[in-house]
Write a sequence for this structure.
């Protein structure tokens, strides 16, 4: 088992997954700690193209499953849908 190092400097915010065993850490946290922010195949470019194509607008209600770090959520909310619900699995 390996743990993410705990910060000694308490003046800055903790990093994602700080103090969480890597064996138990959600996959998107581990990948985010390595710099990956959008897990969807095709990454951010394909996510933006997909959102452009479906044309979310003020009459739409959006449900996002596994929003992870919220990158896609921000892109969706920028389009001002009628409502937005994120569904995340709690470990």
């Amino acid at each position: 088992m390996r743990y993410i190092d705990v910060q000694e400097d308490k003046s800055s915010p903790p990093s994602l997954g700080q103090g969480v065993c890597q064996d138990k850490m959600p996959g998107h946290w581990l990948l985010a700690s390595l710099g990956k922010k959008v897990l969807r195949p095709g990454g951010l470019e394909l996510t933006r193209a997909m959102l452009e194509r479906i044309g979310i607008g003020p009459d739409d209600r959006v449900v996002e499953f596994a929003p992870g770090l919220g990158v896609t959520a921000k892109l969706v909310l920028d389009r001002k849908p009628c409502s937005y619900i994120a569904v995340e699995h709690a470990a």
